[in-house]
Amino acid sequence: MADQQDVTATVDAADETEMEATSQAQRSGGSPWKRRLAMAIVPLLLVAVGAYFWLDARGKISTDNAFIKQDMTTVSALVGGTIVEVAVGEGDRVKAGDLLFRLDPEPYAIQLRQADAAIAAAQADRTALANSSKLTGVSIASAREDIAFAEADFERKRALMERGFLTKVEYEAAQHRVAQARESLRLAFAEQSEAQAKLATGPQVPGVYPAVAAARAQREAAQLNLSRTEIRAPSAGRVSQADRLQLGQELIAGLPALTLVDTRSTYVEANFKETDIGSIRAGQQVRISVDAFPDVEFKGRVMSIGGGTGSEFSVLPAQNATGNWVKVTQRVPVRIALDGKVPVELVAGLSAKVTIYIDGKRD
User: Fold this and answer.
1) ∠97-100-105 over CA atoms, to 5°?
2) What is the helix, strand, coil percentage profile of the chain, to 5?
3) Can you tell me the mean pLDDT for 126-144?
4) Of 185, 208, 228, which residue constitutes the final position of a domain?
5) Are residues 151 and 110 in the same domain?
6) Structural domain includes residue 290
7) What is the dihedral sign for C-alpha 256, 257, 258, 260?
8) Within this chain, do residues 215 and 302 fall inside the same structural domain, yes or no?
9) Which candidate, 308, 310, 299, 261, places its Cα nearest to that of 65?
10) Smaller CB count within 10 Å for the chain: N or C?
11) pLDDT grade, residue 8 (50/70/90)?
């Protein structure tokens, strides 16, 4: 009985050994085939992926060096003064002609009244000059009467001199009075000509007394300055940088006060490598994606290509006169117009990615 159990145990052990050997043989026999299969599939996958990207890149060029742009107008006061009213705030939308802020008008109102007074004074001067004896001819008539009297007196004195009833001194005095009267007449004519010249009008302002014209010009300047105390929007847009407007602040003429952003003029400025510019043409279709709105795709068209690289228009362009020069691929700005109605509100400066279809086809 014991011998039979030993034989059975031996047979079972042999069976287990055989099964384990078979399993190891199967594992060792399958590994080389899988490795060969993997070595064949991986290169094929790499080739397929590379071919996909190569085919996908054909007929288009892309850049993520692109930004949303909008036209901006810097608004400043043309006259200086104290801010007495602020009608807008940051982000407000305005129409052309809407009041933005107002300066204290009183100093310019005073200048306007001073100009009115100058006009009145010039008109009074003209009236006085027109009515003066020099211009009316009274002085000339008086001088002629003096000449007639002096000549008559001289003739009497000469007759007396010839008969010996007059001294030579009295005769010469009468002769001198005639000469003085004639000089007075010439002076009266000269003064009349001078007065007429003062009343004359030139070709620049025909028919208007020059002093009156100058005073009127001063009034127009004062009126213009007074109207400029109300600063209004030159165009429609959205108010930005309005925090500089504070009541009571003294504003200097020409100093930027706020900025108006024209949201209707939205476009994209994409900076492409100089090696890609040769393939870009106006009118080519463009696909645009904005980082702020990843789920929205925008369509557009190439409007124009910049007239120079970005470095050419920089504040401090590169100077390579020293000879220590490293060639850097330059970027050329390309302006792209958005097609159709923009579904979202874009803000100037947002980052974007631009793809231009240089073959005229879209995928």
Assistant:
1) 100
2) 45, 25, 30
3) 71
4) 228
5) yes
6) yes
7) negative
8) no
9) 310
10) N
11) very low
Domain boundary among 180, 211, 228: 228
| 175 and 281 belong to one structural domain | no
Its domain, for residue 158, covers 105-228
- Which of 229, 270, 188, 271 is closest to 100 using CA atoms? 229
Confidence category of residue 5, pLDDT binned at 50, 70, 90: very low
pTM, two decimal places: 0.62
**How far apart are the C-alpha atoms of 181 and 149, rounded to whole Å?**
9
How many domains in the chain? 2
Averaged over 57-77, what is the pLDDT?
A: 88
- Give a yes or no: residue 35 inside a domain: no
Binning pLDDT at 50, 70 and 90, where does residue 204 land? low
For residues 83 and 15, the model is more confident at 83
Select from 186, 212, 188 the least CA-distant residue to 199.
Answer: 212
